[in-house]
Every structure is written in C-alpha cells, then in structure tokens.
Amino acid sequence: xxxxCKEKYPSVSTITQTEHIRxxxxxxxxxxxxxxxxNHFLSMRRDIAWRRFAVKKMHxxxxxxxxxxxxxxxxxxxxxxxxxxxINVTGIDFVQAMIDAGQKKINNKDLSVxxxxxxxxxxxxxxxxxxxxxxxxxxxIRNIPDRISALExxxxxxxxxxxxxxxxxxxxxxxxxxxxxHTYLNRILPHxxxxxxxxxxxxxxxxxxxxxxxxxxxxxxxxxxxxFEQVKKYRLTLGITYLHTGIKPGLxxxxxxxxxx
Length: 261
Ligand SMILES: C[S@@+](CC[C@H](N)C(=O)[O-])C[C@H]1O[C@@H](n2cnc3c(N)ncnc32)[C@H](O)[C@@H]1O
Hints:
Helix 3 (46-56) packs across helix 4 (75-83) and helix 7 (175-196) runs antiparallel to helix 8. The chain has a domain at 32-171 and 213-250: Rossmann fold, CATH 3.40.50. It has a 7-stranded mixed sheet, with helices on both faces. A hairpin with a 4-residue loop joins strand 6 (229-236) and strand 7 (241-247). It contains 10 helices and 7 strands. The protein is an alpha/beta fold. The relative contact order is 0.16. It is 45% helix and 19% strand. The site of S-adenosylmethionine has 20 residues, from helix 1 and helix 4.
C-alpha cells in the first residue's frame, strides 16, 4: 500500500467508486497511529459518547454475537464486549494497519477470546446468513461508496429479528449550525489535524465525505427500501451525528423488547 501524504483529495462527489475506495484505503493506512487520539480530540470526546449510545441500543437475544463492520481500531467492539459480558464479537475491516492497532487494544484488555478481528470487505462479508444478533457500523458507511450493498450484506448476516446500528456523522440541516460546522470542518479541523497527523488531507476528505452523505431522512428511507423494518433515527449532539437502527423482518420480537428501546 502506497502511503503518500496528501494536502487534499478530490471531492467524493467527483470521483469513481474505485477511486473512492483507493483513497479510503490510503487514508486509513496512513492515519492509524494517531487515529484514536484525533478522533477523541477533534470530536471533543463526543465519539465515545456516540458509540456508547449505539451500544446501549443493542439487544442480544438469539446468537449473542455482534458484528462490527469497518471496525477500524475496534472501539465499538471493545465497548460492546465490556457492556455485554455474554456476547462474542467479530470485527471486520479491509485495512490491516487498523486491525493491528485494534488487536493491540484487545490484547491489552485481555479480550482476545471474545473479540476476533478479521480482514475483509464490508461488500462481501465472509459469514453465513443469520449469524449475528446485531451488526453495527460506526463512522464506516460514509467511507463505503456502494453503501446499499454494504447494508444488504449486514441485513443478510443478522438473524430475523436482529438489528443493525449505523452511527454516522452528518451535515446539519440548520443553516446557522451548518455555517459553523462548515467552518469547523473545512478550516479549523484540517489545520488541527495537520499538527498531529501525517496526512492532513485525510481531514479534508473527512469534511467532504460528511458534506456529501445523505440527510438522515434520506438515509432512513434507503434502509427501508433495502428491507429493514422499524427504522429509527436518533439525533446526537445537535444533529452532527445520527444513529440509525433497523430490524430484519422475521421472528416476532419477544415480549418486553419494546420497553427496552
Ligand atoms: C472512520 S473509520 C471507523 C473505524 C471504527 N468503526 C470507529 O468507530 O472508529 C472507517 C473504517 O472503515 C474501513 N472501511 C472502509 N470501507 C470498508 C470496506 N469496504 N470494508 C471494510 N472496511 C472498510 C476503513 O478501513 C476504516 O478503518
């Protein structure tokens, strides 16, 4: 993998899916060392609260297995394993450097028996149908140009009645917040990132990919069209991040599930 440091990448709205995937692989191979630190610092530790919110909404009723798609350094996997001691977690990512960083954290927490990381593509998950109670993706779907295929794959591998959790940053629809957020994303964030990261261009990409991601209502509709039921969206931190959840049609939910939501 080439590890160049770019000042800026072309906008995701102007490139092919193949080029987008190449850029994503390049970025996540070069930012790995500082990835966790910058995530926490640039989001003022909100990313931790957002993942925690998603983890709280998970339910493990049948297989007690979670799939963390585009797991990166395994933060979602680790948080879920800590909250639900009865579950096993599989994380999948196509960048080995991210997996290696995640594996170190898993080893440090002595969780390698319960959390397995594998290298693979979200567009072709190497798992049988109906394997997991929950499939989650945190800040990954924006980086997958063929997001419909990725969601279809997540639908395939969860059990009927199982759920997906999609945590993603979005561009606020409120005009004042939009201006402030635009300035933060495009002017402040890349300069901060430049001080700490080998690849400041990655943070221009971050801004660009957030601005080009579908609005929450549109994303919810995409999930419904794919076949998820009871699609819900949760607005987090003034709407700069949303959690979307959906259920795979099939088994009725056991009594009491609604109260847990
Ligand atoms: C912004 S990081 C998110 C990492 C982690 N989920 C988190 O919460 O911090 C996005 C991750 O998606 C991975 N990724 C993007 N497209 C992918 C694909 N098609 N298959 C597997 N991983 C992918 C990248 O390698 C990167 O590690």
